[in-house]
Amino acid sequence: METTASNQAAETSFDAEAVRAEFPALTPGPGERGCAFLDNAATTQKPRAVLDALERAYVESYGAIGRGVYRWSAEATQHYEQARARVARFLGGAADEVVFVRGTTEAINLVAASWGGSRLRPGDEILVSGLEHHSNLVPWQLAAEATGARLAVAPIDERGEIELGEIERRLAAGKVRLVAVAHVSNALGTVVPVAEIATLAHAAGARLLVDGAQSVPHLPVDVAALGCDFFAFSGHKVYGPSGIGALWARRELLEAMPPWQGGGGMIREVGFERTTFADPPQRFEAGTPAGPEARALATALDWLERLGREAVAAHEAALLELARQRLAEVPGVRLVGSARRRASVVSFVLDGAHAHDVGTVLDAAGVAVRVGHHCAQPVMARFGVPATVRASFAAYSTAAEVEALARAVLRARALLVR
Length: 418
Ligand code: PLP
Fold this sequence. Notes:
- The structure is a single chain.
- With 418 residues, the chain is of the alpha/beta class.
- The protein has 2 domains: 5-43 and 308-416, Aspartate Aminotransferase, domain 1 (Alpha-Beta Complex); 51-305, Aspartate Aminotransferase, domain 2 (3-Layer(aba) Sandwich), CATH 3.40.640.
- The protein has 15 helices and 15 strands.
- The strands form 4 sheets. It has a 7-stranded mixed beta sheet, sandwiched between helices.
- The chain is globular.
- It starts with a helix and ends with a helix.
- It binds pyridoxal-5'-phosphate.
- Pyridoxal-5'-phosphate (PLP) is lined by residues 41-42, 103-105, 133, 135-136, 182, 186, 211, 213-214, 234.
- Residues 41-42, 103-105, 133, 135-136, 182, 186, 211, 213-214, 234 line the site of pyridoxal-5'-phosphate (PLP).
């Protein structure tokens, strides 16, 4: 029998239905219609284990982190530091190289303000790619404006892959101080060869920042193997709570970086004349830390590793290929992006219909997708479209959801295309 993407998905031993049963939001109550939640690149639903961890953190030992001598505060601090060590293990780094932040956006702004603000000089270049989310673009524009550096862009080709030759060419001019690229594109799903880019960047004396918002949930990640200097991700995209994420950075870089925000928790000694600062990572964590959220993020990472990151990646890859196949069968559907390595995301347009209208019809059919520019307007401009419909998969996604998506797109075509 010919092996189709559909029966490949069915044949993997991965039990997505069992995974799904761990997510209260995905379990419809009696008489309720379930939702095919295919907006996982924007954010993910939370398993019971994470919800329980969050509740335990607020109920069993909630107190200020690093501030108190009472038991709850001491326990909360211990959990927070254990969560830091957990994130470090997940990424393949050391605990004192992990800074807790609100998410990827804040992590990149931290690097742009602190490293960029202290290192960039007029005439220096920050090299980004044509694939970037606005979060890995606008902070560099702000840093360039503040320092007199300039932004350079490595374009993407018609597949949606970064042109590595262009990166090499830019680096050869000797002005690039930092390359900042996504590991996986949120708009197209392109997997970027960051290890190769790290080698190129380092050979030219530049640093590499990797925006890992879309890779951490879908691919095994090891910062040492990637060879990057900074790596950022968001907890809410990897089954964890909102408001927490992490920046990993090489210790020697963090040690040389000035604070970017001032306040409690990041100082050694404060006087009116002079303040001295704590060592990293506390130097970059001004204000009361998000203790319960950090603890629940650690639980999310435990949960994902128990499933197996390779197994999740294989499951999602099978669903992605099934979705590309089913969508391509719908007359008038044009897939946007055809990178040779891709993860989790399929973007498409339906000729003759606006993406927002398609999204509305899909919603009425119980299929939740993202429509719009996906905070990646330069990607839309590259493909000459104002917006796409984007479906993105997670560990709990199923082949039945992919089929529901394809049926709903057919219905959208019948309703919207004259
Ligand atoms: N980078 C990429 C590639 C993303 O997909 C996102 C969110 O969609 C971000 C950065 C920003 O993440 P957050 O909003 O969690 O800070």
